[in-house]
Amino acid sequence: MQKSSPTYWLLYCRPGFEQDCTQEALRQAKQRKPIIGTEQPAILADSGYVVVALNEQPLSYRELIFARQLIRLHHTIESLPERDRLTPIIDAIATLPGTFGSLWLEVPDTNDGKLLSSFTRRFQPLLETSLREQDRLQDDPRATRLHIFFPNKTSVMIGSSDPHNGAAAIMGIVRQSMPAEAPSRSTMKLAEAIEVFMDRSEQTRLLRQGMQAVDLGAAPGGWTWQLVKRGIRVTAVDNGPMKGVLANHPLVQHLKQDGFKYAPRKAVDWLVCDMVEQPSKVATLIGEWFAAGWCKHSIFNLKLPMKQRVAALDSALGGIRKRLDEEGINYRMMAKQLYHDREEVTVFLTKTKG
Ligand code: SAM
Question: Distance (Å, rounded) from C-alpha 230 to C-alpha 310?
């Protein structure tokens, strides 16, 4: 029997998390089918991307925590001629079937990558014009995207992604701007989580004026600010002080208590939690809140240990699943290392109808 050639996937991640991103992608693939006879490409530490070699296993972006984007890699050109980078790229694209709904020129999220972005800005219109002339590019955000990724100035990776199985943002980064009034930069984490985990209609439905929330580990108030901005009443639990507009806000009640001991008098809509603690301890707490019926939706942060991050996350998220399953609660849970997350990941958990 003829041996089939491997399929390669290009995944972007936060620099420093290449091992975790690879480990997670390979594990997901192996759960579908063993990976046979393919050697894995080397992992480049701090590069901000990884390549994995599979047989025909599909990968699901939603279920990957560390991957910012998921791209089927078609061509890698190692040494682009300095005088004409366009022709080899156009020739490589010519071998791919069909048309593309968008063209994204991308670089790694590293300091070296940033230096390349002025080049990609100049290069984009040249490539775009050429692809339009050949009728290879149509403006359709639902159609296959073409990714031209420059790991450095002399090489390029050409791939495609399915908008239904990837991030809807260039480089997989949903950037947020820092609101002047918010008391901490952490506010961007919750803002990004809301954008990434919920579509527009869900945001409107689940984050409504008049709702009630509890924010555990709230100080100085960046997450609370995102909630009160939407007209949600917040009980902010933290021994530390709430700052700026949140020090004395009509929608905020500040309780100087231990977030692990606090219990609401009445059930609330939302629990958000950004306490710096072991992932297993936070996960147990979240499980208890859902099991007790104290909240319907939650966004929480899990701070990662330095080693065995994938295993620590598995255990924490697995613990929540087990607890909710035992209680017969239907739910949807999604975890991502967001752009504004550092050594941590953010999780969205919501009760669903049976
Ligand atoms: N989300 C906040 C924001 O946007 O401004 C930042 C939270 S900060 C990363 C972590 C907070 O958790 C600290 O203010 C700390 O006092 C609080 N914290 C840690 N352990 C806690 C506990 N057991 N109970 C209550 N708060 C706790």
Answer: 34
Pocket residues for ligand 1 (CB within 6 Å)? 184, 186-187, 217-223, 237-240, 258-260, 274-276
Q: Which of 303, 307, 322, 353 is catalytic?
A: 303
User: Does residue 37 have a pLDDT over 90?
Assistant: no
Pairing status of strand 233-237 against strand 252-255: parallel
CA of 326 to the centre of ligand 1 (A): 30
CA–CA distance, 250 with 224 (Å, rounded to integer): 12
The answer to whether the bond into 220 is cis (omega within 30° of 0) is yes
Separation between Cα atoms, residue 19 and residue 49, nearest integer Å:
10
Name the pLDDT band for 40 (thresholds 50, 70, 90). very high
Task: Pick the closest to residue 136 from 158, 166, 152 (CA basis).
Answer: 158
CB 151 within 8 A of CB 112: no
Tell me the chain's radius of gyration from C-alpha atoms: 22
Task: Give the Cα separation of 106 and 92 in Å (integer).
Answer: 17
Q: Where are the alpha helices (DSSP H) in 207-273?
A: 222-228
CB burial readout 308-317, b (16+ within 10 A) else e? ebbebbeebb
Q: What is the 3-state secondary structure (H, E, C) of 318-338?
A: HHHHHHHHHCCCCEEEEEECC
> Number of H helices and number of E strands within the chain?
8, 13
Catalytic, 3? Answer: no
Tokens linked to 140: 């359709």
Q: Using CB atoms within 10 Å of the CB of residue 143, give its burial: 0 to 12 exposed, 13 to 18 middle, 19+ buried.
A: middle
Q: Which 3 state secondary structure label does DSSP give 248?
A: helix
Q: Ligand 1 pocket check: which of 254, 275, 282, 300 to mutate, most ligand atoms within 8 Å of Cβ?
A: 275
pLDDT 10s digits, 224-248: 999 999 999 999 999 999 999 999 9
Q: Which two tokens stand for residue 302?
A: 């899990």
